[in-house]
Amino acid sequence: MQQSLFELQYDNTPIQLDMPDADLKYYPHFIPPLETSAIMRSLQESLEWRQEQITIYGKTFDVPRLQAWYGDEQAGYQYSNLTMHPLPWNPILLALKQRCENASNSHFNSVLANFYRHGQDGMGRHADNEPELGQQPVIASVSFGAVRNLDFYHNKNKTKVRVPLADGSLLLMRGATQKCWQHGIAKSKKTLAPRINLTFRYIHNK
Ligand SMILES: O=C(O)CCC(=O)C(=O)O
Ligand SMILES: [Fe+2]
């Protein structure tokens, strides 16, 4: 039997992840499946992806992914005596920002985009706890493309929680999440398709 378009409504009810000292809400179908591949392609083509580098003990390495940072002009921040400025918003990022603001009842003034080209791209353990993000930051994380595991590590005990982030999903991180947990995207030996993740944030300036 043929399904009518109206029956192809996906349930957008969020799931509250049961983790202590964290406030994590997961929306598996935040972006309807019919829209995700076009959005992914347009992000891949229209964002100004950069290969950033890090220096550890005097040796310089390529960060294992491509990155781009967009936001309001006032959302710059100080970094090693330099003021970093975001690129100006484009229509697709603004539309996604609006959808995240509606879902979270929050405001965002910048977005960090990460492009994981294959399984060997990843992100090391960290917390988004820079002072510019405030005491209990609200971060909206939208994913497109390959499913990748976001691993959470509790700061005080050895608890590890693996959260697979699906194409078109939204993960809202709030409350004590950044204070009490670190998170990272593990690399994989498997051949994985590309993935783009956007983390919408609010940067407070003095
Ligand atoms: O790619 C992800 O899901 C994680 C991104 C992230 O942790 C970050 O941008 O701070
Ligand atoms: Fe993060």
- Kindly state the percentage of residues in helix: 10-25%
CATH H-level homologous superfamily name: Alpha-ketoglutarate-dependent dioxygenase AlkB-like
**Number of DSSP-assigned strands:** 15
The CATH topology annotation reads as Jelly Rolls
Q: What structural category characterises the helix and strand content?
A: alpha+beta
Question: Total number of helical segments?
Answer: 3
The string of secondary-structure elements, in order, is EEHEEEEEHEEEEEEHEE
Architecture, according to CATH? Sandwich
Characterize the overall form. Answer: globular
Major beta sheet summary: 7 strands, antiparallel
Bound molecule kinds, no repeats: 2-oxoglutaric acid, fe (ii) ion
Strand order of the largest sheet: 1-2-13-10-15-8-5
* Count of domains: 1
Mean pLDDT: 93
Describe this structure in words.
The mean pLDDT is 93. The longest helix is centred in the first third of the chain and has 14 residues, at 33-46. The protein has one domain (13-201): Sandwich (Jelly Rolls). It is built from three helices and 15 strands. By secondary structure, the chain is an alpha+beta fold. The strands form four sheets. A seven-stranded antiparallel sheet has the order 1-2-13-10-15-8-5. Strands 9-14-11-12 form a four-stranded antiparallel sheet. Bound molecules: 2-oxoglutaric acid and fe (ii) ion. 2-oxoglutaric acid is lined by residues 112, 114, 123, 128, 141, 150, 165, 183, 185, 197, 199.
